[in-house]
User: Fold this.
Amino acid sequence: MYDLIEKLVNAYGPTGRETLVADTIEEMVKPYVDTIRRDAMGNLICEKTGEEGGQRIMLSAHMDHIGFIVVAVEKEGFLRVMPVGGISMNASLTRHVSFGNGVQGIICREPVRDGETPAMKHMFIDIGAENEAEALSMINLGDMAVYSNDCFRLGQHKVAAPAMDDRIACALLVAVLKELPQKTRNTIVAVFSTQEEVGCRGAKTAAYGVEPDIGIALDVTGNGDTPETKLPAVKLGAGAAIKVMDRGSISNPELFSDLLAAGKAAGVPTQREVLPYGGTDASTIQLTRGGVKVCTVSIPCRYVHSACEVIDLRDVDAAKKLLVEYLK
Assistant:
C-alpha cells in the first residue's frame, strides 16, 4: 500500500489539471474492470459490470490537489498567485512548490504593513528568475504550482505527504478494485473525480451520467487527536470513519448502518464521524437526478490542506476490508 500511495501522491495533478493522475490510475485498474472512459470534465470512470437486476454502486475518490495559479509576474521576476482550492497561508510559507513543467519554486509572503491583515495578495512564488522576461520564459500566466513531492513514513504506521487529500482515497479505491471477486452481483462504478476542491464539480457530472442507485464518497476527514484539537472525535489508527454528516451532506441512515455492519463483518474497527465543516463528493452525488442514497467512508488525516498531510495505514486497511465486504 505504501508504494501505491507514494506513486499516486507524487503525480502532478492540481484542480482542473488531473490528467497525469488519471493516466497513472488507468494503467493500474485496467485488469480489474470491464470498461474505462473519461468524460468532458476529465473524470476517470471505471465500471465493473454486475448481474442483470443488480444495483449500480458508485464510489468516488477525487484526484485533484489544492494549488496556486499564476495571475501576474513582477518586473523583478516574482510570481503573483491566487489559490486553487482551500489554501492555508500559514501552512504555505516558504514551502517548496513545483509546476507541471518541472520548474521549482518557493511560496513566500511579503512584509505586511502595520494594521494590514495578511492575505493572498501578499503571497508570491520565487522561481529564481532575474526579471519578468526570464520568469515568463520559465512559466506562463495560468500555470499552476502544487506543494512538492515529499512522501515519507512517520513511525511504524503513519505516512505523510502533500496531496494525501485525496490520493489516499484514490489508492484505497484502486486497492478495493483489485480485491473484489471477478464477478459481483451489483455493478461497481469506480469514479476518480476532478475539481472536488472547488465545489465537487466532477462528481456532479459523473453521477449524472452514471445514474447510481447508491453513492459512496471516499475522502479524508479531520482529526481530534492532536494537542488542543478535539473535533471531529476521530483518531488516527482507530479505524475507518463512517460519516454521519458534514456541511455538504447528511448520510442516508440505512447506508450508514450497512457500512458499519460491513466493518463489523470484516472484523475491522470503525469510527462514527460527525464533521462540523467541509464536504465531499457525496454532497453533489446525492442531488443528482431524482436523488441518490449517499454516505462517505473517510480516512482520518492530520494537517489537512498542508504540505504534510498524515494518515495511518491501519485505517486505510480497515477501509479497504470494509468496502470489499460491503461490495461483495
User: Anything to note?
Assistant: The chain has a mean pLDDT of 96. Residues 164-179 form the longest helix (16 residues). The chain has two domains: 2-65+162-327, 67-147.
